[in-house]
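Exam prep: given the inputs below (a chain plus magnesium ion), describe the expected output before reading on.
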Amino acid sequence: MGGVGKTTLTKKLYNDTHVKTHFESCAWISISQEYGVRDLLQNIINCYMVLSEEDLKKVEKMDVIQLQHKISVYLREKRYLMVLDDIWTNQKWDALQDAFPDMNNGSRVVLTTRNKDLALHADAQSQPHELGFLNEEES
Ligand SMILES: Nc1ncnc2c1ncn2[C@@H]1O[C@H](COP(=O)(O)OP(=O)(O)OP(=O)(O)O)[C@@H](O)[C@H]1O
Ligand SMILES: [Mg+2]
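Solution:
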């Protein structure tokens, strides 16, 4: 459910020194409902890579497949962490997932979502980590 602390917990993990040093490349994007897949992929590129003016112009002309490919090629060589915060729909995950190669090298993609079906769709092998409420004392 909303406001239960998914983003807060993920931020704590993301900023943890051990987590930071475990990964070579880390990126966090917030999946606002207003952004389309193309904008999200461009954001991901901007998070991971420092591009020259010339490369930026090339990226602006790329379509979704080309953007996915560019990210995938970049990440293939690295142990990377990608956080997709507040993703709502299966379609959005399906459209983004090809950007994230699985080289079996300890890389991780972390999703936060209110939609359990999406969590299970994205990874049918593992149970999503569900947050409960704080009790009265903790609150
Ligand atoms: N363990 C906690 N103790 C105290 N405050 C908390 C805790 N976890 C979250 N909060 C606070 O609760 C509010 C909502 O947290 P957060 O934004 O992480 O929720 P969320 O599950 O990501 O919500 P949404 O589904 O809307 O994205 C924030 O103001 C945050 O600081
Ligand atoms: Mg959140």
